[in-house]
Amino acid sequence: MSDATIPKDADTVTLSLAELQTLALDVLRHHGVSDPHAQAMARVMVAGQRDACHSHGLFRLLMCVQSLRDGRVSRDAEPLVTQRSPVVVAVDAQAAFSPLAFEVGSRHLVEKVRACGMGALVINNCFHFSALWPEVEQLTEHGLCALAMTPAHACVAPAGGRSAVFGTNPLAFGWPRAGAHPYVFDFATSAVARGEIELYRRSGRALPPGWGLDEDGEPCADAATVLQRGAMQTFGGYKGSALASMIELMAGPLIGDLTSAQSLALDGRLGGAPHHGELILAFDPRFFSGRDPALDQAAAEALFAAITGQGARLPSQRRFEARAHSQIHGVQMARALHTDILALMQ
Amino acid sequence: MSDATIPKDADTVTLSLAELQTLALDVLRHHGVSDPHAQAMARVMVAGQRDACHSHGLFRLLMCVQSLRDGRVSRDAEPLVTQRSPVVVAVDAQAAFSPLAFEVGSRHLVEKVRACGMGALVINNCFHFSALWPEVEQLTEHGLCALAMTPAHACVAPAGGRSAVFGTNPLAFGWPRAGAHPYVFDFATSAVARGEIELYRRSGRALPPGWGLDEDGEPCADAATVLQRGAMQTFGGYKGSALASMIELMAGPLIGDLTSAQSLALDGRLGGAPHHGELILAFDPRFFSGRDPALDQAAAEALFAAITGQGARLPSQRRFEARAHSQIHGVQMARALHTDILALMQ
Q: Does residue B294 lie in a domain region?
């Protein structure tokens, strides 16, 4: 959710959300992506741009087109759905990008959760470029509480170590609220996004403590060393490291898919979209609480009010504010990025 | 998991695990706790003492007896089981301590997960004093991956705030390993345990940065101020705070039970065992992975080997080492604690 891709005072272009969607679709279709995939991919990129999560906005078209040109990613594979149990559905993305697999699978997931109270959507064999918050947010629209997690390419050392084992391994959570935006968070279990360290490298700035290690496992302020020979660190010391390991296990071996180290080994480079799985869990409060749902909703709202009432922000507050602005005024995009995106169609 | 209750060079007594179990049972029975409850409670306290998690060892008898003397806790209520769906079971502890409710409920949980691939155990209306790792570890013995979470008494501020909203809200995770101890972690989402800050207060030492805030939300090194007028902090900044909020919501309003703020308001003091709910989730890998389980087990083992191979420790390594020692040599307990425990029977 960095603003880093929009340098201050830079020349920008303003696009409506409809124009953004058309632009993303045009690029993806130009590269032979089937309409269902292009629509699903464009939707999550436009959502990112709309909410000022620029690193997950149309910027991602550059990475996606690179992966398509490499020939590693399917342009048109249909997601293959397998019912594993009354509460577990698996979707094999067949080496395509993940958004369509999520859209197809989430319909089954919602049915299962509404029938049984909880359920899991396993996505296997996908290329992953998207943020997780659009997925959990979508599930909250069905009145469900949801969790999503995925590994990435290995670039993060475990606490007490020195070599990359984990990916940036994000965790997203969504909680439905009546008459308000859902309560949503989505954070990497690395101290910062890898792209953030890349920006420090480009500008030659020293990294803050806690972000990276050199090849000997010592704290390192040099971004290039961290990226090339060292490793990133998790947030929150050994606790953040434990959480990263949980995501690695649950969205890797549990679902029969690659760990971050395996994904990196398969790809061989850190630049491309990683190829692995994703796990989404959802819960219907009606099956979990034995009391009047209004009491539970009131307790959750009291919690949110206790947070905002003392001047702290809810995790997605800034994102929803950006959304409200974008829906009226459109979004500003750095002209250089816009030019790069248009060049993808030449 | 602090060693703080055993001062160095202190006079100690050595007890076998069987002697510890007998001691705990004697105390609980002396206070009229029914045999099923006493057995379940003693088992988790002995497990804590055995694994050198002294703050969750027989030390907890002091808090439990205080709560019993207060008349707030039931000595003999039978856990009331309700099947909420094919995958959700709820146990009303009826204002007794939680360990028996877990033992009764986990049998249903295991059946559900083996039949459907995943399941949830909701524990409501319990008094909570135990660590969560014994529970997830027990579920791994059935070949299941497990998560457990619970609120506590509110004493932790959200990131960017100044007033207590969250409890220490622990999260525990267990992963089964063939021929080895399971992979288990159990951490508070507060920066440290509340007892740790209490120890700093007693010794008059300054708190390290990141542990606590004063009443204005400013970083505070004075333990008494943090405990009496300020608030503890979460681990890992706004990400740890987000995780604490997830636990608050999932083990509170989702399951129709109290938040940490509600639990504290009900009790009125921070010293007693908190009265709230707990959520346990379990997953059977056979339903989640579409490939040969040996491949998934090998991938998980490769992950663990990549962590330990670079000199980092697995989260429960120290605990399992302490267990191996205790099983042969028994455990050492500070004589002062032993005396205090014996005095509970006078």
A: yes
- Whether A56 is catalytic is yes
Structure tokens at B340: 């205090």
Count of structural domains, chain B: 1
- CATH number for the domain harbouring residue A94: 3.30.1370.60
Q: Which of A235, A307, A308 to mutate to test the interface with B (most CBs of B within 10 A)?
A: A307
Percent of chain B with pLDDT over 90: 88
- Identify whether B119 is part of a domain: yes
Q: Does the distance separating the beta carbons of A287 and B252 come in below 8 Å?
A: no
Q: Flag whether residue B146 sits within 8 Å of chain A, measured between CB atoms.
A: no
- Report the SS3 class of residue A296: helix
Segment 165-204 of chain A within 8 Å of chain B by CB: 165, 171, 173, 175, 183, 185, 187, 189
Q: Write the pLDDT tens digit of every residue in A24-70.
A: 999 999 999 999 999 999 999 999 999 999 888 999 999 999 999 98
- The verdict on residue B21 lying in a domain is yes
The predicted model scores a pTM of: 0.95
Name, in order, each residue with C-beta under 8 angstroms of A140's C-beta and a sequence gap of 6 or more: A146, A174, A175, A176, A177, A182, A184
Which residue segment(s) compose the domain that A306 sits in?
78-190+234-314
Q: What is the pLDDT of residue B2?
A: 43
Q: Which of residues 9-68 of B touch A (CB under 8 A)?
A: none
Contact B345, B69 (CB under 8 A): no
- Helices (H), ranges, B57-142: 60-69, 98-116, 133-140
